[in-house]
Every structure is written in C-alpha cells, then in structure tokens.
Hints:
Strand content of chain A: 5-15%
Distance between the termini of chain A: 16 Å
Number of helices of chain A: 17
Distance between the termini of chain B: 5 Å
Oligomer: heterodimer
Strand order of the largest sheet of chain A: 3-4-2-5-1-6-7-8-9
CATH class of chain A: Alpha Beta
Structural class of chain A: alpha/beta
Helix content of chain B: 40-55%
Number of strands of chain A: 9
Shape of chain B: elongated
Number of helices of chain B: 12
CATH architecture of chain A: 3-Layer(aba) Sandwich
Order of helices and strands of chain B: EHEHEEHHHHEHHEHEHHEH
Order of helices and strands of chain A: EHEHEEHHHHEHHHHHHHEHEHHEHE
CATH superfamily of chain A: P-loop containing nucleotide triphosphate hydrolases
Number of strands of chain B: 8
Strand order of the largest sheet of chain B: 3-4-2-5-1-6-7-8
Largest sheet of chain B: 8 strands, mixed
Structural class of chain B: alpha/beta
Shape of chain A: globular
Strand content of chain B: 15-25%
Largest sheet of chain A: 9 strands, mixed
Radius of gyration of chain A: 25 Å
Amino acid sequence: MKPAFDPARFKLVVCLGPGGVGKTTISAALAVAGTSKGSAVDVMTVDPAPRLLDALGLGGDASEPRDVPLHGIRIAHPPHAKRARLRALKLDPKQTFDAIMTRYAPSAAARDTMLGNRIYRNLSGALAGVGDYMAMEKLLELASNTATDLIVLDTPPAAEALDFLDAPRRLLELLNSRAVALLGTPIVGLFRSRLGIVDLAARAVLSAFDRVTGLNLLGDVQAFVRGFEGMYEGFAERAKAADELLRADGTAIVVVTTPESGRIEQAREFIESLERTGLHARAVIVNRAMGPLPDAKELAAAKIPSALKRKLARNLADYAALKEREARSLDALRSAMPSGARLLLSPELDREPRSLGDLAKIGANLRTA
Amino acid sequence: MTLPRVLFVTGKGGTGKSTVAAALAEALSHRRPTLLADLDRRLSAATLLGASPQGDAPVRVSDSLHVIALSQRAELNSFIRRIVPVAAISERMLRSRTFGYVTAALPGLEAFLLLDRLRIMAGDAALEDRYVVIDAPASGSALELLAVASGVKEIAPAGTLNRLANGVEAFLADRDRFAAIITTTPEELALREALDTARALRDQMGIAVAGAIVNRTVDALFEESELAALAGLRAHRQLAQKRTAQRIAALAACAELERAGMAAFELPMLFRAAMGVREVSALARALESGVLNR
C-alpha cells in the first residue's frame, strides 16, 4: 500500500507545531519510516520524552548524532537496505552556540570575552528564540553531510510558526543594527554618525534606564555587538543558507497538531503565516485522532441483558459526542489547508511509543483524512 | 483547601489548562470577587468565559467575575512609561528599533516585569478581598517565567530592578499570596510533566503547589464481569474497555500525584460536541463540589 506521506521522497522534513502535540514522536516516526524505505536518516529531536529517548537510544549526552540499532523494524528490499541507517541526536542550544562562537571568533581572546559577556550569556541561556536559532545551525551542519539522504527535524514548541523559521534573520538584524553598535560611543561621535533623532533619543533614554534600573546595559550591548565584528559575514552566510535550505524543493514542512479545537486554531495560524512568507506546508498531521466507532445498529440487534445494552449505548453516545467535536475541528482545519498539502491523521495509541517498532507502526498508520 | 490570593494555573500543553483556569475562576467567583488574568496571547480562557478583554482594562463577566489580558510586552511598555514620565520621549523610545533590539537581547526583562505586575495584583487582591486566577503559559515556559526573578537579581546587582526582584521573589515564595495549580490528564506524558513541574516548583524554587487537577477523567461505567460476558460485539467491547482503561488511568494518576505530596482532584471529561460557556459552567460546578469543598 502506498503510504499517505512518504518522507523518503524528501531530503529534509521539518516538523512544526505548538507544544504538547507529539511533534517529537511524529518526527521520530517519520525518520523510522524513511529508514525502513532504505534511506540514511538523521533525526534531530528537541525535547524528547524519556520513553522516546529509550526508543532512540538517546540516554545521556547525545548532542552529536548517534547510531540507533535498527531492531524491530523491517527495512525495504535490497539494494536499498544497505544504505539504511538511522542516527538520532538531541539539540543542546547552549553547546551549539558556544561551538559557533569558537568557530567564528577571530581569536581565542575574542571568544573568551564573548563567552563572558552578560548579553551573550542571556542570549545563549535557555531563553526563547535561541533554541530556534541553534536548531537551524545544527541543521546546516547535518545537511552538509552528503552520506545522509534525509534529515527529520523536530523543532522547539512555538507559539507561532515563524518563531523558528525566522530565527536567523532576527539575530542578524540585531547584529547588523548600526544603532546598537553606536549605543556606547561618546555623544560627540554620535553627531558625526548618521543616526536618526529617534536613535539618539533612544540612546538618551537607555542611559537613563541604565541608571535607574542598575542594569548597566549600554556597555554590554556594545561589547556584544563589537564582539561579533568579523563574525557577521559568517552568520549572514549561514542565515542565507538556512533560508535556501528551507525553501528547497527537497524540503517538506509538516505542521503537527492534535484534534483539540484550540490546537487546530493554532495550526491554522501556522499554515497562514507560512503561506505569507511563501513557504508551503506539504502535510498537516493531526496526531491522536480518534479511531472509528462501533456500529449502533449492531448493538441494537444484539441479544444481551438490557441493562448492559443501555450502558453500551451510553458509552457509544459519549464517545460519539467527542468524535463529533473532533470532526468539527477537522472541518475547520480542512478549510484552511493550502493547495497541494495533505491532511493526515495519526490515530491515538493506547500507550506511549517505547520502541522503534512502535514508531514504525505510527508511520505505517498515517492515513489521509 | 485554603487558597492564596493568586493561583497560577499551569500544565503540559493540551491538558486543558485554559479551560481549568476559566472554570476555577468561575467557581471561585461564587465565593468572592475574582479576576481571571489571561497571559495567553490567544485569550482562550477569556473566550471560554465569553469575554474579550482588550488593552489593559478588566472586562466584566458577572458582578463577581472579571477578566484581564496581560502581556509581557505591555508590561515593558508601562514600565518604560513609569521611569520615563515624559510621554513624548517614552513613546518615541518604544517605537525605536534600537530599543527593541536591546530588550530582545534581554528577554528576561519583559517576563520579569510581568511577574512584578502579578505581585502588585496580589497586594490589591488582599486589600479588596479578591482572588486572582492566572491562565499561565504551559509548564516549560511557566517555569522559565517564574525563574526569571532570580535571574534578574544576577544581571542587576543594584538599582530599581534589583529591589523589584527581591519583592517578586518574596511574593512567589509566600504561600498566603501565591501558589501554583498544575493541570494534567491521566495520560502518561502529561502526568510525568506534572510531577516534574511540581518538583521544580517546590524543591528548586520554593513555590507552593496548591494541588493538581486531573482533567478529562471518565466514570467507571462497566464491571469487569459484564465485559467478559460480551463474546460478540467486539468493537463495542473495545470501546467499553477503553473507558475502563481510562478510569483506571485516572485513579492511578491521582494516586501517584498524592504519593508525590500533592492534593489531586478529578475534573470530569465532558462528553459534549463543543466546549463553550455552558461547559465551563458545568466544570465550575464540579470544581465547587470537589476541590473547593475539601
């Protein structure tokens, strides 16, 4: 049977979606599906649940790709089978950022100044946005490996689709801001520069802000931006490369959600903002969709005690109401689907997946809605 | 259960956090005036109560229930306006890209100011004998938000912010003023996250956890023996078994939460085709007879 969505047709699959919808599970399942087709696959996860970690053999430090033993899944017929490989890694934003600084810093002294800078420490901590950027960096690193056929990328939970995709551009804008670089220069120098009156005002207010708050930000911000001198080119190139990779033909953006109405609404917003930036979701996967319900007529005709029959009928009516709720959500989603994208359902499971076999089953059970 | 002035409702995404916050606010409003503070950009909790707050003013749901929308960005703006009282300058600064970049490099600042706002709201609530229920971010982001107070003390060793940070820390640690309520469902991942969140709050941050609400639990409809007798009707038996399994999972979840030292309360699954104002009222009644009576 032809699969509803075949990740092996792509070089990169990016899973986007709000938190708590099972993005990591779906990413892992798509990676396993690719592997069983005979592809050499890397899957990068962001915040995997413990059982999923076990399933992927990702205990301990796994910030670099690690081979996952291919137990319990069937690999497509040779000759493809030879190539089949699954590697998994867990993103470590802080470590990735430090590695980049080390790579681009012009000297060891410059690097150390940077790593000690307060703004940098905040940027590279567990704060929103940086994880997004770092995922992108790691992705470029993985994509440069020609021995890999497919990369499946799980992304940090996001309130908005572009949080992740836009991260390189946002960092670049910060670095590229002349105004920020000039924040700490003496006022005389500023008049010679071509800063607008607004930036001058902002600078004046920022110094007042510094005094009142006790933050002493100006110096740090300036040191931070100056620290990036000589590194800017490198970053700009990476950002451009990342953008090109996301827009490439071999890239599939997959939006993951669950049938709950709030999540469906979020998924719609994701799809719309993707469309606005010219990116198109190839598939929308609704995770944990309810299975088919039993037949009411069969129950009516059954010869069982009437008390039990009433209970079974009530049970059916209860779950039918939930199914109806789900159907309404799916209808709302269907009307927002971009042309050429597929709406897929991943049925709910009795328990969390804990092996590659479980993940393979999820991939195989994806069906068109 | 004795409740502090401010209840911070958080939980794994998808556990019905906003629904629980809305229902809890409605239930509490039957005792005392209550304010629901919606921190979610999408205002799902407010919408569930039929309210659409805009700007920084509370809107009325009933005589004793009001809803307000709070955002980090708005708190930063009002902080700037406070310390830069000349409107022409502060407005200009808020529109300046430069300033945007600087605050973007210090994301903790906005979050911190939001916490300070909650501290002030708690003070007002005590004076006016009110409750404040917060529809907080999902647990991961909520922990980051609450941890920001100590982070700010590090980056601002002196000055106004340092002073505010001390006040916020004291507020969060005061169980008469502030406590978290953790939402979960009987499912494994949600339960795991609830337990981790409770541990982080209590053990690492010294923040009280008033209780856990196990959302979407089902009632036990079938006896084991009844189902054993159902030889035919395979699909119906499976659906009945699903319900029984969900019942067992709910009981197990409550037991595990209690073992971890938390008061656990069940909130029933509403088998309805839509979730709206009426459904929230039904959940509020369930909370009143359950949680609030204990």
